Amino acid sequence: MFVEAYVHHLLTIARSKHVRTLSLALFVIIFIFFFRYNIITLVYIVQTYLRWYRFSSGVITSKDNFDTTMASYPLNQTSAQWNYTDAVPAILHHIVIGNIDLSQRPTWLAARDSCLKWHPNYEYRFWNDSLAEVFIQKEYPWFFETWKSYSYPIQRADSLRYLVLYRYGGIFLDMDLHCRRSLGPLRRFDFISPAAYPVGISNGFLMVSARHPFFEVLVNQLTLFDRNFILPYATVMFSTGCMYLSAQYSLYNDRHRLRLLDYKQHRLSGRISTPLFHHQGSSSWHANDAASIKRIYNILYRLIYHRNFIFLNLFLIIIVLSILSCRRRNESNKLGKNILL
Asked: What is the pLDDT of residue 55?
């Protein structure tokens, strides 16, 4: 009898509102502690989406005395020329990480050859797994274990471009970018990247001076953003990909000095031709996840579009749940009184 009364007493305490609230608070604290870095990185990503409209000052316009159509510059102009110095070194970088046989990628080889043709006097650096390992062990030994532990080869390729460009500077190009002209006129700017849609900037084409302070930030923040976000697409994009780059851009104090190419003229998504490139759109690594995320985006868009109807239903559901909760609480109180009697 005593045991039954004691168990009932414990159950009564467990059902009490204060204990449930305390348990929930404890669960939230534990959850936040174990996933604090994921939460921090997600906050950075979300604020990038919410505040991106403020960051248009970096887009190159006619006020910069630069023709973004590139029509004013000779196709073979390999340097800034005129009254400008070359802030970006004459180095081309390509990166291929993972079990990829270039002989099976003739379009990549053709794209590479086109870029070499338009930049005949540039130093060329091709980075594969073995060269990357030697480079990172020498220049960034503190990062080598993180680099090796990435779950996806594209993460190693993404992070390597930041490491290489910080050390040497120059021009990084994705292997599916077929050059239509020389990139020399853009060398007057110490950083160049195309804007992306709906927010952010692309990391498929980067021009930067060596030891640029923004790339120092990119390198140093890689370990903080090395988190698993369940979906491969989200994990890659947030840890090393375009959204990682974009989040760091949005947090950078001198971002107005980081110059961007307008999305309408220079977007690098899908198969498209811009004043600079033919983009072959070879990003097949994230096709399935991207399609899933797009479906989720469409669902959320419909929910927002019909938000009045959704809010009305949610309001009714909350009322019903509140009534049921009150009834259950009253029944529990009555049962407790009967037992005590």
From this structure: 67
